[in-house]
Amino acid sequence: FIESLAIRPRLIVELGVRTGQSTFAFERVAKLCDSFLVSVDIEPQQTASIWHKWSFVQQNDITFADEFKNWCMRKGITPAIDVLFIDTNHEYHHTKLEIAKWFPLLSEKSKVFFHDANVRMLYKRRNGTIGKAYDDDRDIMRAIEEHVGACFDETRDFVDVKNSWLIRHHAICNGMTIVQKIS
After folding, report:
1. How many CB atoms lie within 10 A of CB 118?
2. Which of 22, 32, 64, 183 has the fewest beta carbons under 10 Å from its own?
């Protein structure tokens, strides 16, 4: 919420919705900034936003990326994404495609959030409880590393700058990596 609010986004795109927890946070940012919010998932929407500038697109996010500019033009939206949240299938090749398809649509002030960038069989939440997930063979982090040309230890928090990108990673739980363009 705070990371998104800080850049006063005009357009927020959420890839992967599931139960709408991220939609809930992004809707609040959108209301405060009078932003457009676009949520994309291959599954039907389970929760609905009441924000009048919210749209749900039930489609594969890779396919929709190819249509995004035209879709925006039909809706009267400038197709420059300020906040991109990626929380889809977490597979390496899919994440590589998301980077290839969606990053060219980013605005100059954009931030990209990669959820689940530190997935392990067991993970620890901030409150100390333990959860069970799966081992994803570093799929998300490998895709990020290849894009920025660096290697990272996703089991630890870090901040780094590589090839015009500020990369901030929070290892807690299943990890969250924020990649931000820098001039």
Report:
1. 26
2. 183
Indicate if the alpha-carbon torsion angle 143, 149, 155, 159 is positive or negative: negative
| Exposure string over 146-175, b if 16+ CB within 10 A, otherwise e | ebbeeebebeeeeeeebeebebebbbebbb
* 10, 36 Cβ separation under 8 angstroms: yes
Amino acid at position 104, single letter: P
pTM of the prediction? 0.92
183 contact partners, CB below 8 Å, separation of at least 6: 108, 164
Q: Which of 108, 122, 102 is nearest to 14 (CA)?
A: 102
Q: Which DSSP letter does residue 45 get?
A: P
Q: What is the CA radius of gyration of the chain?
A: 16
Tens-binned pLDDT, residue by residue, of the chain (183 aa): 999 999 999 999 999 998 888 999 999 999 999 999 999 999 998 777 889 999 999 999 999 999 999 999 999 999 999 999 999 988 999 999 999 999 999 999 999 999 987 876 566 677 777 666 666 678 999 999 999 999 999 999 999 999 899 999 998 878 889 999 897
CB count in 10 Å sphere of residue 119: 21
